[in-house]
């Protein structure tokens, strides 16, 4: 169960790093040429060998499977931990430390799920039209510009990115521990530093475009 959680978590971190680097194309400030081209390439990857959108849908199915398995293993582990309360294996201090980390991960996870639902409705389905009112869909670049020219949208993203990065800084370390990499005090320090680097990189990389758009540097 823990291995499922670790592997799916690392798949999701890989997706986030890719997504964050893709978003940094916004910094080119070229009127969205590169950013829209990148969104287009994802839709047409391996076309015409594969049908239009085929690769993107395979990718979406893989991502959804990873999210479902990640949440499922988290629920199973939380249930097991709950049933172990009072068992002789747990000292009070250890139980308190574990339950604090578990509670932080649980609440962070809930905020992330709510954020992803909002995010997909905003950018993929464009049902939530933040910052514009037209009936038709905007291209990804203009939808991003419209959204992040609203301070409250940037605030929602800021809070969500804090949740994503706190979740990842703990999850990344935990995943590698589960997979057997935490073998010595030195390995522990390296893992701790790496997990903070990945979380900080994601935070800065994701939040840079929204702030630059809000302050009129991009667009
Ligand atoms: C400021 C940060 C972010 C920006 C500007 C952003 C921007 C976008 C845009 C424009 C799309 C739509 C692409 C298209 O339809 O062509 C998208 C899709 C998506 N984003 Fe984000 N994103 C951000 C953060 C995140 C985070 C933190 C997550 C996950 C926790 C995430 C998960 C997704 C997913 C799952 C999709 C759907 C991909 C697909 O089309 O299958 N995004 N994002």
Quick synopsis:
This protein has a single domain, classed as 3 helical TM bundles of succinate and fumarate reductases (Up-down Bundle). Helix content is 75%, strand content 0%.
List descriptors:
219 residues, mainly alpha, 3 helical TM bundles of succinate and fumarate reductases, 7 helices, 75% helix, 0% strand, binds protoporphyrin IX containing FE
Explain how this protein is built:
- This protein has helices spanning 2-23, 33-44, 54-83, 92-124, 140-148, 151-178, 185-214.
- By secondary structure, the protein is mainly α.
- 75% of the residues lie in helices and 0% in strands.
- The protein has one domain: 3 helical TM bundles of succinate and fumarate reductases (Up-down Bundle).
- The mean pLDDT is 92.
- α1 crosses α6 (151-178), α4 packs across α6 (151-178) and α6 runs antiparallel to α7 (185-214).
- The protein contains seven helices and no strands.
- The termini are far apart.
- The structure holds protoporphyrin IX containing FE.
- Protoporphyrin IX containing FE is lined by residues 16, 19, 23, 39, 60, 112, 116, 119-120, 123-124, 140, 144, 157, 164, 206, 209-210.
Question: Secondary-structure blueprint of this entry?
Answer:
Elements (H helix, E strand, L loop, with lengths): L1 H22 L9 H12 L9 H30 L8 H33 L15 H9 L2 H28 L6 H30 L5
Helix pairs in contact: 1-3, 1-6, 1-7, 4-6, 6-7
């Amino acid at each position: 169960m823990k291995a499922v959680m670790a592997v799916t978590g690392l798949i999701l971190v890989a997706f986030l790093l890719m997504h964050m680097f893709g978003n940094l194309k916004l910094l080119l400030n070229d009127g969205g040429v590169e950013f829209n081209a990148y969104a287009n390439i994802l839709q047409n990857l391996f076309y015409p060998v594969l049908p239009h959108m085929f690769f993107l849908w395979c990718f979406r199915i893989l991502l959804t499977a990873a999210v479902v398995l990640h949440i499922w293993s988290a629920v199973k582990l939380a249930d097991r931990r709950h049933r172990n309360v009072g068992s002789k294996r747990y000292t009070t201090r250890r139980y308190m430390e574990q339950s604090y980390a578990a509670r932080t991960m649980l609440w962070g996870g809930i905020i992330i799920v709510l954020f992803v639902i909002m995010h997909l409705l905003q950018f993929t389905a464009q049902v939530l039209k933040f910052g514009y009112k037209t009936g038709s869909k905007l291209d990804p670049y203009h939808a991003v510009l419209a959204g992040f020219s609203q301070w409250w949208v940037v605030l929602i993203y800021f809070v969500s990115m804090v949740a994503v990065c706190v979740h990842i800084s703990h999850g990344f370390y935990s995943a590698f521990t589960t997979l057997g990499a935490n073998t010595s005090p030195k390995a522990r320090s390296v893992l701790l530093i790496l997990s903070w680097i990945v979380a900080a990189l994601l935070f800065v990389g994701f939040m840079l475009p929204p702030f630059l758009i809000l302050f009129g540097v991009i667009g």
